[in-house]
Design goal:
Radius of gyration: 23 Å
Helix content: 40-55%
Order of helices and strands: HHHHEEHHHEHHEHHEEHEEEEHH
Mean pLDDT: 87
Largest sheet: 6 strands, antiparallel
Low-confidence stretches: none
């Protein structure tokens, strides 16, 4: 293991320590200080070993100096370390917050005025009643009460602190991964990927949710699963894999969406269904994240896509591709009736792509189900039919906004 990789692994443990002491203010302060001081030394060690790195100046400028020059979180991390070393502790504050979310967009959340004692006592009935009075019945059915403890640094007031630390770790992980590739090797496997220690994966911030339509307190959970080594893809999928391998690497959103669409169509025709799949790509069209989910209601869709936005930001994703089946519903009575009760007017399989430049691509099929027992049939939709109802890709808006924040100079 190279010396900067060893230090990055140390930093991952410090990030875990921050999470484990999130509700112990003094320990959290100590671990945050140590994390910020250690994070800076990763690049110091790389610089110290620059004689062993071919074309160091060019690589360092492209992977560290230029990306971080306009990055507000990395600039804050650098300044915060200087404050810790020369002036003392960071000024931090914690708070308890209660908000109601009822859409994909966090700017639309409704804050509930409540004092600390009421929130600590979890007077949930009162909070839910107050929120119901402000929302139409059809909207309230899918709404979620979010209760959150939150640490914020005074010098970075718009970022929850544990997410800012996760972002800093993610950027250093990206730098070290890039350097490993530059040296024709791979990052040591003992170094955790950022998605394995982000706040939604390990429940650091202990954000809790209550669905209006379902009693009980829950939390958002991400699980990492290893691929089944004994799985044998059907021959058709193996042929498609070989086709992808021999073809040029996709170099645009349109080409990536076409690739996913071929795979989606073949998978659906092979199995008669398609589980939801999401892939995130960087600016060079390398896949950097992949996940699946299973929604039980509309509220879970809101939570999922907000979590994806968080991941897209700290991974600096440039593009997403979402593949899923979906019901088409008549929304005329949505204000008065829950989405789950609205009439189903169709069923589709769609592949949706979007990136930080505001480009979007959609390939979709209508799903028809024969009366006789057999696989459902895909009927391709023409582009005009796909784009006739642009609201059906509204759910990706928070992710696109996050990708624009990660790539501020890419928006069209």
């Amino acid at each position: 293991m190279r010396p900067w990789e060893r230090r990055l692994r140390d930093l991952a443990q410090l990030l875990r320590n921050c999470g484990e002491t999130y509700f112990s203010p003094d320990l959290f302060r100590q671990n945050t200080n140590q994390f910020l001081q250690t994070s800076r030394t990763v690049t110091f060690i790389i610089q110290k070993n620059k004689a062993d790195i071919p074309d160091f100046d060019v690589w360092y400028k492209a992977n560290v100096l230029q990306p971080w020059a306009t990055d507000p979180v990395m600039s804050w991390a650098k300044d915060a370390r200087n404050v810790i070393e020369k002036e003392g502790d960071l000024e931090m504050q914690s708070a308890l917050r209660a908000t109601v979310l009822y859409s994909y967009i966090s700017d639309e959340d409704m804050a509930i005025e409540v004092n600390r004692r009421e929130l600590l006592q979890a007077n949930i009935d009162r909070l839910l009643q107050a929120a119901r009075q402000k929302l139409p019945p059809g909207i309230a059915d899918a709404a979620v009460l979010k209760i959150q403890r939150r640490w914020v640094a005074n010098t970075l007031p718009d970022r929850e602190l544990i997410y800012a630390l996760t972002y800093a770790y993610s950027q250093l992980h990206r730098v070290c991964s890039s350097l490993a590739t530059h040296l024709n090797s791979a990052l040591d496997s003992s170094i955790p990927h950022p998605t394995t220690i982000d706040p939604s994966s390990n429940d650091v911030a202990r954000v809790r949710f209550m669905k209006f339509g379902k009693p009980g307190v829950g939390r958002h959970t991400c699980l990492r699963l290893d691929a089944d080594p004994s799985y044998q893809p059907p021959p058709a999928l193996l042929r498609l894999k070989e086709e992808f391998r021999s073809a040029p690497k996709p170099s645009s959103l349109a080409e990536v969406v076409v690739m996913h669409a071929k795979m989606a169509q073949l998978t659906f025709e092979q199995h008669g269904n398609h589980v939801p799949m999401l892939a995130l790509y960087d600016k060079e069209w390398n896949q950097i994240d992949f996940m699946s989910t299973a929604f039980t209601d509309q509220a879970e869709k809101y939570l999922f896509w907000r979590n994806v936005a968080d991941r897209a930001f700290y991974l600096k994703a440039f593009a997403l591709v979402w593949t899923s089946e979906s019901w088409l519903r008549d929304l005329k009575e949505h204000q008065d009736r829950p989405i789950r009760e609205l009439p189903i007017v169709g069923e589709q399989l769609h592949v949706v792509g979007a990136d930080a430049s505001d480009a979007s691509e959609v390939i979709a099929w209508n799903i028809t189900r024969p009366t006789k027992p057999s696989h459902p049939v895909l009927v391709p939709l023409k582009p005009d039919d796909v784009y006739r109802h642009p609201g059906h890709i509204f759910f990706i808006k928070p992710v696109v906004a996050a990708m624009k924040m990660a790539h501020p100079h890419s928006a069209g």
